[in-house]
Design goal:
about 280 residues, alpha/beta, 12 helices, five-stranded mixed sheet
Length: about 280
């Protein structure tokens, strides 16, 4: 088994690459990982809060932005005067989902050489005991372990009382972890889904497992509504036992950081070229 080296996650991917001046700016802040996540948080506004701030439909389209560099460029367009680390009003933040918080925080962490990766799965702290579709960040700490941090909710209260700066075991499950628990009979698949929608069940877990695989194996953090390959059939419940067995293998490879196994899934599950066009 070829485990992914920690150093792999210290370098940028297609959506987390920042130019040299921006990396120098981020490094000049001299912040720890929590502080960098707070900076990312301060540049973004969730769609629900954006709506409450009166932002129009055109502004809402900012949540289709993929690269961290484009998110930052838009933030500077909205407010070039306020230093990047200083508070700004919701109207001067970029509209983004949990995925955007995770991508921007991951870009900042990688810019200072901290190994980090965005993870797609489910949070237990929004409508407990349900597990809600969500993205967070893992970074490699000085204690030589992956710390799970929720950049959208650092220093903010959640309904379930999450320790957002260092999530406790079980507060967030990657999609692979959720799938393993469901297959072992430890969790109900209908408890996993997208808040405010009818989209709950095993298809949501399988879809997020594909997204998490793309993020970990290839550093490609897709949008939450991207669909490719067998994902649509999975949502419709038509993929069958063979696909469930494939997701078993995906979950195991992600659990073990087994890069060889992850790459073997490319033929069936890789993000297609042109998805972001």
């Amino acid at each position: 088994m070829d485990r992914i080296g920690i150093e792999f996650f210290a370098g940028p991917g297609p959506y987390t690459e920042l130019d040299r001046p921006t990396c120098e700016l981020i490094r000049s802040l001299e912040l720890d990982p929590v502080g960098l996540c707070v900076v990312a948080q301060g540049l973004l506004v969730a769609p629900s809060d954006a709506f409450g701030a009166g932002l129009d439909a055109e502004r809402m389209m900012e949540r289709n932005t993929r690269p961290a560099a484009a998110l930052l460029a838009r933030a500077f367009e909205l407010d070039a005067a306020t230093p990047i680390q200083e508070p700004r009003s919701d109207a001067r933040r970029v509209v983004g989902t949990c995925r955007h918080y995770a991508v921007l925080a991951t870009a900042f962490l990688r810019a200072v050489g901290t190994p980090a990766r965005a993870r797609c799965g489910f949070a237990a702290y929004f409508v407990p005991p349900k597990f809600v579709d969500h993205w967070i960040v893992e970074y490699w700490s000085d204690a030589e372990r992956w710390v799970r941090i929720d950049p959208e909710y650092v220093h903010r209260t959640t309904p379930g009382g999450a320790r957002s700066e260092d999530l406790r075991p079980g507060e967030f499950l990657t999609a692979g972890e959720a799938w393993i628990d469901v297959r072992a009979g430890r969790a109900d698949p209908d408890d996993f889904g997208v808040f405010g929608t009818a989209n709950w069940g095993p298809g949501e877990i399988r879809g997020n497992a594909m997204r998490d695989l793309a993020s970990v194996a290839h550093k490609i953090e897709t949008l939450p509504w991207d669909e490719w390959g067998p994902m649509t059939d999975s949502y419709n419940g038509t993929t069958g036992d063979d696909f469930d067995a494939l997701i078993d293998d995906v979950a195991a490879a992600l659990r073990d950081d087994d890069r060889d196994a992850m790459l073997r899934f490319d033929a069936d599950l890789a993000v297609p070229v042109g998805l972001d066009e």
